[in-house]
Every structure is written in structure tokens, then in C-alpha cells.
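Bump. Still looking for Tubulin--tyrosine ligase-like protein 12 C-alpha cells.
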Amino acid sequence: MEYKQFLQIHQYQLANIPESLWEPLFNKLGQDLVDAGEFLELHYGDPLNEYSLHVKAEGGLKKHGNIFLIDHAWTTKPETSRAQLLDNPQLVERLTSMMDISVDSDEDQEADQGGAGEQGEGRAMNKHPDLDVDSAMVELVASQGNVSTQRAKEALQNENGDVIAALMSLTLHPDHDAQGLQNLEEAIGGQVMRDKEAKSAEKKKIDTINKIMVEMWKYSQTYEYAVVDAHGQTKKESAWYIMDEVGSALRHSDTPNSVCAPFIYIGRGTVSYSVLFPIEDIPKGGMMTRDFVPADIKDPLTRKAYLQIYEDDRDAAELIAVYESDKLEDNEVKPFDQPFTKTMTYSHSTEHSDKKLRLYTATEWVASNCKLENVELVDSEDQADILWFSQDFKDFEKLTKGQKINQFENESCVTYKHNLAALVRSAYGTVPWCPTTYNLSTELAPFVGNYLWNEEHGHRNIWICKPWNMARGLQITIQEELAPLVRLRDTGPKIAQEYIQNPVLYEGRKFDLRYIALLKSSHKDPNDPSKGCNFQLLVYKMFWIRLANQPFTLEDFDNYEKHFTVMNYGNFNLTQLLYTKFIDNFEKEHVNKKKWVDIQEDINEAIKAVFAAAVAKPKPEGLGATDEKTRGHAYEGFSIYGIDVMLRGDAEQCQPVVVEVNFSPDCTRACKYDPDFLNNILTVIDPRVGNLDKALGAFNVL
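Sorry for the wait, here they are.
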């Protein structure tokens, strides 16, 4: 590759590197020259109780005087990192050394406990019939003693877990000679020791990987890259990487003397490095430092919150005070009247006419399930009475009088997760039907304060991290440690939402409920749109149950089938359960507890409260009109939303929690279960197309 071509291909990455270093970087990349070791050296315990990177070159390093390539030891994604570590013991060993991780063996732990394992040298003296014995030992005794597992378990309990004593009690006559006993002890003792060593090694391996999974966030960096999906669409994905021993030894400073950043070299294929260069003169022996905090974080308190993950002795007071202040402010917000009418109003005559209603849509499930005789599909937006899109619509000013469209301007106020949380907090403060949620781009300080407050008060921290605007469970993880929650914000806008630790269960499994809500506006005066709109909110009576595949426990948070309920987009078993059957089974399981009709009423009220806030609050916080121009739009709007609801608490409480609101959900499955699903929606939108009373029977009108 020629130098000019290198500059052209890498111009955006080079913009943040001093021009005087471009040619040296080009030369080193061309030769794959990793020569930092000639100028720099690792220290341990001097001056920090960890690895640090120091200048060893005579005369030190000059500002912008050199640039170094840093290799990447590991590139991964959070969802695959554990599996990679399990399959790569050499990588585990390298990372353990780099991160200075130590894991005590079982023998060390026994020694720390005062030699608790010494009793195994002799016969067990005390019998414990209720002793919880290891299942592997039970199988071993049952196999060697040729007895049932129940008898083997009882023998082990009687002998306080001593395998040899248990086998003697099952197989040896008291008159057997000493040599037979010795042979048995040697054979069984050797097997026990081998099993113990294998179990100890496996436990140490898992414990080591668990520690790496916690510590990796202090070392990981990230960059974005483009991929082309199966439909030919380009999308961005994020990679996490850990630099080699040199790069990982760089320490943080608020006034750093060097810059270290990823550099993707497109030359001999595509190779990822990091580049390191000094931005100050650094003397021989001086420690190399960089700023760990992303450039987009300017606020001092937010910087402090970000740096908490690198602090062994956390200074929590200031951040906790921010959280407590916000919490007090939320509790002082007063609810308002909910502005809905149950009276269905329309700007057109409800009488049927010979003229068919014209529907334009590019939404497949709408086009294929529209069976009403009074509706015809048209190919032009201009000809349509109803417009139905799956993508965001922008040209509202082009709509004409009488047209209806399946979107509202600014409905991202409820469909974006961070906006929904902000809307509810602004309207109502803290409420039991909305989980505590933080925008990690703008509310990092109060979130970290909440996390630290929980630590101080003995509350378990379990948070679910989600992108602002993705569905189908994409990029969602459950975290207990602070570090990943803080660092995951670096790969794009995220929220941290309290994980519901006490969900109401169905047959021992976690579940959530998907409701379809229809929000509809109609002009108060069809001849004068400036007088505003009436809003109606309806929730379809049929709902969908999404079940986890495994019993719920508060552990194994990377086990998708235990903690997540969306199974129809992955390689998982999908439980199909009709809502009427669910209600019947639920009431049988939780007999003499809260009846479903009361639970449903609570769910309806929670959904109603969300959209009441959206309608009442002006843009950009809500859907409400902000001026005469937007108040006087000629068109009318409607939109359907997928509302995900969980229940928490015991079966007597069953507190609904609105988890999220989804834009333009795919309702193919709804149409399969109820062939009139779309017809009912279209009839409520415009009763000229069908029987309004029949259609309304499928909804709860809120």
C-alpha cells in the first residue's frame, strides 16, 4: 500500500493523531512493528500495587515524538465472552496474569478454616443421618457396593460422608482381614482423590473465569464496525477488546501524559491495533497514563461516577446524595387527571357508503389480513384514506384533510425506553407500576449513587441493561456488578433498569404479558381542527403470554431460558398458551388469591396512566400539541402499541409493571389466533368499514 492510499483509507482515524506521526505509523503498520518494549517497561508494586507502564528509554519520551502499536490480546462480545474463556485455557491463563487474579484452591480454603479436612484421615466418629452428601459420592458408593443409591446415601450419612467407611459397612464382614481392608482403602481412596482433584480443578477454573468476567470491564476498550446483514442492510456492531500486557498496564490520570486509542488497519486484510503516543514530555522512569473516561463525559460528577469502577476505596457520599435528592424530588410529584373519553367520536359519517375505504400499507401482516369488504388496498399514498406504515413517518405536513395515519408525531416519547421512564417520572414521580430506570447517557451519576446506596443498605443490586430503542431482546443483559453497567454505555445509548427480583411465577417460571393498545385521536370539531382532538385509548382483551423455559431463581443471569421470555426469535422452545387457558390455570395455581379480573383492572389502569401522561404532556416530552399550528393538523392519528407487562410481589399483591412500549408491533400471531383482530382495529379507526359495536366488544375501552 502506498502512503497516499493509506492516508485516504484511514483519514477519519488519523484525524485524532498528530500529523507528524502519520508516516511513522504507516511504516510500523506495514512492518507489523510492535516495538514498545524497546522504550517502555512494566513495573509491579512500584509505585502501585499492580502493574504499571514506565519509560525506560534514555532521555525519556518527547511530546508527539513517537507512536507505538499495541496488540490486542482478546476481542470479544459480552454475550460470547464466557464461552470463549471456557474453550481457551491459554487465554484464561494470560488474562489471569495480566489482571493479577488469584483464586484459592479448595485445599487453601480448608487450611484457612483450620484444617477442617483432617477428619478424613481416620474413621468418622459422629453419625449425621440428615447430612447432605455429594451426589457423585452417592453414585460411587452405589456402584462399588452394588446397592441402590438410597442405601448408598444412607450409608454415607451414617458414616458422616466417609466413602471408605460407607463401603465397609455395605460390603465387608467384620471378620475380613486387614489386607482386604487396605486394598479397598487404596482402590476407593485413589478414586476419591482423583474425583476430588478433578472437582477442585473444575471449580477453580469456573471461579477464575467468574473473576475475569468481573475484572475484564476495567481493562476492556471498544470500537464499532459495520456488517452487512442477510437483507443487504449495513448495520453497526460493537467489539470489546483487551490490549496486551503493555496496553493493559496503562493507568488512569485526570491529566494524562499519553493517548491510547483503537486503530483498524486496512492493509494486509483488516487488523485491529491500539496506538499509543505521548502528549507530554515524559522523563525516564515516568509512568505512562491515559484518561479512562470517554470524551463525551464532561461533567465532573459524571466523571466521578464513571471512575467508581476503578476505585478500590469508593468515595460514595456525593453520588449517594445525588440519588437521594432525585428520589425526594420524584416523591413530591403529584398525579394529574387522565384526559381520555370513552365516548367514541368521529369526524365522518358512520353510515356505510358504496365507496370503499382506501388503505395504503407496506406492512405485510396488515395487507395480508385485511378482509373487510368495505376496504380496498391502493398503491398510492395520495389516494388513501388510511395510511399504515411500519417505519417512522416524517412528512406529516403533506397529509390532507380526512386522512388517517397509524402514527403520532413524537411517539418516541413512549416507545423509546429512556423517554418512557422520563415521561412517567415527570408526570407521577416514583410509581410502583414503572420500574426504576436510568438513562446511562444523562443519568450516570444518580444511577451509580443508587447502586452505592443499595450496597450501603444491604439491598442486592441486580439491573437489566437495555438499548434505548431495540426490540426482540437484542443487546439486553442482566448484571450485578457496577463495572459492566457503567461500561456498556460506551457502545451506544443504554438504560439501566431495576431487575424485578420477585416476579409472580406461572408453574415456577417467569412470564410477561404482551397487550395491544390502540390510541386514537379525532377532531372535536370536524370543520375546525384548531379546536383540538379527543383521544380514545383501547386495549385488546386478547393478550399473549411469554414464558421462560426454565424455573426461575435469582442466579445464573446469563442463562437466557431462565431469565428471559422472548423465545420466538432464537433457537429455543416456544410455549404456546391461549390467554383464557392461562387465566384459568393461573387462578387454579394461586387459589384464594387475587382474582384475574382485579389484576386485569390494575393492568388497564397502569397502561392508561402511561398514555394519559403522553397525551397531556406537550412535545418533546409527550404527544400534546405545542402551538396552534400543530393543534390544527387536518389529519387524524391512530397507533397500535405492544405493551409488555410483568407482575411482581406475591400472588395476593400481583403489582403490574409496565416494562416497555413497542412501536408498530408485528401482529401476525394475533391475526392467527383471532382472524377478526385487524378488522376490529380498522372498524374502531373508522366505523364505516364494519360493525362498530361488534368491534368494540373485543376491546377494553379505557
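The chain is about 35% helix and 20% strand.

Edit: fixed formatting.
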